[in-house]
Amino acid sequence: MTNTLDRRTLLRMAGASAGTAVLAGATLAGAGAANAAGGAFLHGVASGDPLPDGILLWTRISPTPDATPGSGVGPDVEVSWQVATDPDFVTVAAQGQLTTGPARDHTVKVAVSGLAPATTYWYRFGYAGGWSPTGRTMTAPPTDAAIDRLRMGVVSCANWEAGYFAAYRRLADRGDLNLVVHLGDYLYEYGTGQFDAAGTVVRKVEPAHEVLTLADYRIRHGLYKSDPDLVALHAALPWVITWDDHEVANDAWSGGAENHTPSTEGAWADRVAAARRAYQEWMPVRMGEDGAIYRRFRYGQLAELSMLDLRTYRSQQASGTAVDDPARTITGDAQMTWLKAGLAASTARWKLVGNPVMMARVDVGSLPAWLLGPLGTLLGIPQNGAVLNADQWDGYNADRNELVDHLRATGTRDVVFLTGDIHTSWANEVTTRSTGLSNPAAAEFVVPSVTSDNVNDFLKLPAGNPLSALGAGLIRSTNPHVRWTELDGHGYGVLEVTPQHCRMDWYHLADRTRAGSASRWVAGFSVGAGSAKLRRETAPTL
Ligand SMILES: [Fe+2]
Predict the structure, then answer these.
(1) Pairing mode, strands 239-241 and 179-182
(2) Burial code of 310-336, b = ≥16 C-beta within 10 A, e = fewer?
(3) Distance of alpha carbon 120 from alpha carbon 309, whole angstroms
(4) Which of 58, 130, 212, 281 allows an S-S link to 46, with CB 3.0 to 4.6 Å?
(5) Structure pTM?
(6) Ligand 1 mean position to 155 CA, how many Å?
(7) What is the CA(368)–ligand 1 centre distance, in A?
(8) Cα–ligand 1 centroid distance for 60 (angstroms)
(9) Spacing, Cα 291 to ligand 1 middle (Å)
(10) Averaged over 291-300, what is the pLDDT?
């Protein structure tokens, strides 16, 4: 049987589009009712981590005016929830109620089970006689289902002070996606003016200082979920998300971070605990009892998605020959074992890996100094021209070799890394010394930042300037496994997965500093089943 997730999805999306207005209407009506009942739902609704029979739902209640994020005040309250097969909630598939309060910053997370696979649902929360805005979500198909097509938005790196989240809005408006995959830097820890748009603060963060305490992180999460574009994308689609460093602090590793000073900011473990607690409260993500966030999802026979955590277990960044030290790790032993075993044993056609930092090598030793400066700032490359970015897999050669050699030894094909972190767009073939250049072990698609500064921003030049283009050409000339890179654009990726191919299309914004900015298609690359060689694609026809 060909279980056309695609056809079913499009049919439902067609319904939802007739009903995009219906959804919007329901949202406004729901918010109005909630406001009349006490202004309860100020941070939207969200869903995530879809399973064939379940989904995780999220919201936050503001029961009193002083119960603001991070305040620690306000009463414990009863909240109800409903999941329905229609946007008017005529046919309710599941419902329940629970209590939240200041102990968890008035956030609500519900792991709904007993749902039908590959089904679009609408959901809402109730409090004091009012309803929240309505969200739309979708369960995963049965594990053995044959799926024709899966499409997902792919994003990373949303810096509040650098602009508006039009990338999220453009994805929310598409109407053809099943999922959003977010690769980290969902938020940034910086204080105002510490990381903005090429020296200009487009809009100020709250709190104004660098976030450090539990209250700080809760306030920052609350700020992000006041953004209408971010709220719209959460309400439109389920997300699968992992964190990178800035959810705690820049260049985090297991024992510290570049942007953490124990003598003035306290113990690293305390900061991590505060950041992760706020993350657990505020994000639609399932975490293990031990706090582990690496986890795996399945979309029928078509695809499996392994989401990595490359911050919690990693050794400190190093340089020089230390990057080859087999005692150092980016994944930690348990996660590496889980990743290798899962990839080799998977019966899914495509093994997608949500990979916060870039896997492919970037040799930059022969690049000119003018490019090493901004690239060094962006990538963490020492200004003396060292060839590696020690914060990405380049700094953990032994782990990369172990993973690639395992793929080769087990004959594991059709592995595609989905990557964020470096604020620029790349289509890479993953090669190591053992693969040589002509037989890559996997493909890698790197999405640009939603807003965070990239090369032209550091150069303080307009996008598309000749220096950035020359830099991209030089990177390609010294790295033939990099099939394409673009260093100036902000935006998002759209990944299409079919039994025949896995294709990424990159879309860049006209202007990240303008709310509602348009986006345009800039490039597409695909990889066919059975080979990790990339093919350039022409503009998609939708
Ligand atoms: Fe980032």
Answers:
(1) parallel
(2) bbbbbbebbeeeebeeeebbbbbeebb
(3) 29
(4) 58
(5) 0.91
(6) 11
(7) 24
(8) 26
(9) 22
(10) 97
